[in-house]
Task: structure prediction
Amino acid sequence: MAGRTFRVAIAAARYNGRFVDRLLERAVATFRAAGVREANIAIARVPGSNELPSAVQMLAVGRPDVLLALGVIIRGETLHYELIATASAQALQRVALDARLPVINGVVVAENEAQAKARCLGAADRGAEFARSALEMAALGRRLGRRRR
Result:
């Protein structure tokens, strides 16, 4: 998948940074390996996963080919994690449809820290997986004739 002309925008949460930083690192490495120029990768850091939809909406104004939201939500003692996971997923989908741009929901929701570690720091390499999905959707947009405004 040649991404030389693609413009990607990434919003990444700082909360659970050890895990999100690895997702971001692997996503950027995957974009670069696909030929996306460093100058065409915009990154915005936000406090947590709840702020990702707002950041993605702001990044969408620049009309990138694809947007990627990265975060990690781990179950705590209350249902707060479930509320944030549900609300952010719904809002990211709304941004995608309203902006008519592909948004990849790269928010890992884990029952515990061990699951987060396996998905973000282990062999699963979810950051690269999210980036490959982003590249595929950017290519689809180009193939279907979506033009930058």
In short: The chain has a mean pLDDT of 94. The chain is about 50% helix and 20% strand. The longest strand covers residues 66-74.
